[in-house]
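Much of our argument rests on the idea that a fold can be written as discrete symbols. In the encoding step, the backbone of a single protein was reduced to a row of integers, each denoting a local shape. We regard such an encoding as a compact summary of how the chain folds. The record that follows shows the chain in one-letter code together with its fold in token form:
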Amino acid sequence: MNGQAALVLGRLGALGIAYELHEHEPVPTAAARFPMELSFGATICKNLLVATRSESRFFLLMIPVEKDADLKALREHMGCTRLGFAGERALERLLGQRQGNVGVCGVIRDDDRLVEVVFDTSLRGKSRVATHPGDNAVTIILDFDDLLRYVESWGSTVHFFDF
């Protein structure tokens, strides 16, 4: 388990948030969980960091794996310029993460609160949501309301959008 995972788990503990912890082989993408049988009976999501062309706004999207990220619709909803995937430098600088390790728990590294988190509306009320704490060889399962509390407790701006 890497340092970011330990930091995330410590924060969850400090907030009194219960979670299941599973260590496993690295999972390169959310969809790769299924053939590896690593869904743990939870909602599996992809996590994507996107930015405006000028990188004046950053959005960390958490979307069920079966849905597509409609960046044009999100852009119109957010009232911003064209959105595209953020590069490796932005991932590292803002979340301390690399491709294949992107997860919403990474907001704990966003000291300036520049990343706005966008959850798909279908996640509301889910009792078992899988995510990783910045290490794709570790999965935590928790209630979505607790994940939302974790993100909000850091001071991150949260939005809901129906992808």
